[in-house]
Design brief:
alpha/beta, single chain, 290 residues, eight-stranded mixed sheet
């Protein structure tokens, strides 16, 4: 007797390493691969929403178009607005006017889409189901991608939030809790990558003194991340999850504004997805057995 397959897409963050994820997503969309739901963290949330809106090529396009614009990402923006990535420009002007986000398609697509952000008061990851791509959903996406120390915390739905990657870098466990039993996980680090303890912890604790729960989560983030990588490796070996990851370190800056570099990493994502397609389709189409 077979069980019902519930197909999920799980997207790691990583700032401009997310260009790799964008390349993967575009190939999957071009090949008509649909999921019942997706969950994204940080850049995985900000870029991943385009899967639900079915906008192939949008994230790589607007990143290349605006990466040199100081309103998009700059020290000037950080000084002027408190956000390295300018919130109004990134989360209003681009999706509303400059490169419109297709909210109608997003709203009508039955694929569920979840984003995770860190509650600064508890140091726990809180998830939000995005339904219409409107102001509240956009605020949650912004919160998920609000890197500590270079972003203002985002207040929404009674929470004060920062980057979801602080507390849940890859949300596969959350998707499994929701009943997604056939998950494709897109990572932005190679297979042998393991995170080390940050040498900047004293500075982090000083700068985040208002948010001790976040500072504490940052102190053990490397342990959380490395445990997740071991669990993902185990799921991959057992055939529970299908993983697409870079073959080597992407070597791209978190705030990269060289369009050639953005394109290089995007094309790496496309290549890995194309190589994975036959096995990926088999993984998604093979029924479970009890």
């Amino acid at each position: 007797m077979g069980t019902t397959l519930k197909k999920g897409l799980v997207l790691e963050g990583g700032a401009m390493r997310g260009m790799f994820t964008c390349g993967v997503m575009d190939v999957l969309m071009e090949n008509g691969i649909d999921f019942d739901g997706a969950a994204g963290i940080s850049a995985g949330a900000a870029f991943g929403c385009n899967y639900k809106s079915k906008q192939i090529g949008r994230p790589i396009r607007y990143n290349k178009n605006f990466c040199k614009d100081p309103r998009y990402c700059s020290i000037r923006s950080l000084i002027k607005t408190g956000d390295l990535y300018g919130a109004d420009f990134c989360y209003r002007e681009i999706p509303d006017t400059l490169d419109p986000f297709d909210r109608e398609t997003f709203r009508n697509n039955p694929m569920e889409f979840y984003v995770g952000a860190t509650d600064v008061s508890t140091g726990k990851c809180i998830y939000h189901k995005c339904t219409d791509g409107g102001e509240t959903d956009t605020k949650w996406m912004q919160a998920s991608a609000s890197m500590p120390m270079v972003s203002k915390p985002v207040k929404i739905d009674g929470y004060t939030l920062l980057d979801g990657g602080i507390t849940d870098s890859v949300p596969y466990a959350y998707m499994e809790q929701l009943g997604y039993n056939r998950n494709v996980i897109v990572l932005t680090q190679p297979k042998d990558y393991r995170k080390t303890k940050s040498r900047a912890l004293p500075i982090i604790k000083l700068m985040l003194h208002k948010y001790p729960a976040v500072a504490n989560a940052m102190a053990v983030r490397h342990k959380m991340y490395n445990q997740q990588m071991e669990e993902i490796k185990e799921r991959e070996q057992k055939g529970i999850s299908f993983v697409i990851r870079p073959p080597k370190a992407l070597e791209i800056s978190r705030t990269e504004n060289n369009t050639d570099e953005l394109e290089r990493v995007y094309q790496m994502g496309r290549k890995e997805a194309q190589n994975a397609l036959p096995k990926l389709k088999e993984f998604l189409e093979t029924p479970d057995k009890i």
